[in-house]
C-alpha cells in the first residue's frame, strides 16, 4: 500500500505530521492529533478522537507515530486534502511577510489591503481576536487554517437569496 502512494504525498503528510508534532518527539498526543485532523477539514468529537487514537496506536504507547498515522490515514486520504493543505501553506507564507512562521495584525492588514480588501481597525481586531485562539497576539499556521476552514464553512452554509 505504501508503494502506491506517491512520494510527494508521503512527504506532504510527513510535513503536516511534523507541523503538528509540537514537541518534535516523533509522536502525536491526542491534542496534536485533533489539531492535525481539524486542519484536514475533519472535526472528530472527543469520543471519536479517543476511538481513533486507540485504533491508530498500534504499539499501545498512547501516542500516534508517523507510520501509525500513515497506515490509518492512507486508505481514506485523497490528493485533494493534501493539495488544499499545500495551497493553504502557500497563502499563509504570503501573509507571513517576515517568514517567522506567524502572521501579525500588521501583516494581516497589509495582505488584505494588497488583495483589495482593506480592513477597518475594528474588523482587524475582530479577525485577530477570533482567530488567535491561544491569545499570543499572532496567528500560527494552525490558527490561520482553522479560521479559513471555519469561514469557508460559514460561507458555504449561507443561503443565497
UniProtKB/TrEMBL annotation:
Coiled coil: none annotated. GO terms for cellular component: myosin II complex. Gene3D superfamilies: EF-hand (1.10.238.10). InterPro entries: CALM/Myosin/TropC-like, EF-hand-dom_pair, EF_Hand_1_Ca_BS, EF_hand_dom. SMART domains: EFh. SUPFAM superfamilies: EF-hand (SSF47473). Keywords: Calcium, Metal-binding, Repeat. The keyword Membrane does not apply. The keyword Calcium applies. Transmembrane segments: none annotated. Residues 8-43, 44-79, 83-118, 119-154 form the EF-hand domain. It comes from the Eukaryota. Signal peptide: none annotated. This is EF-hand domain-containing protein.
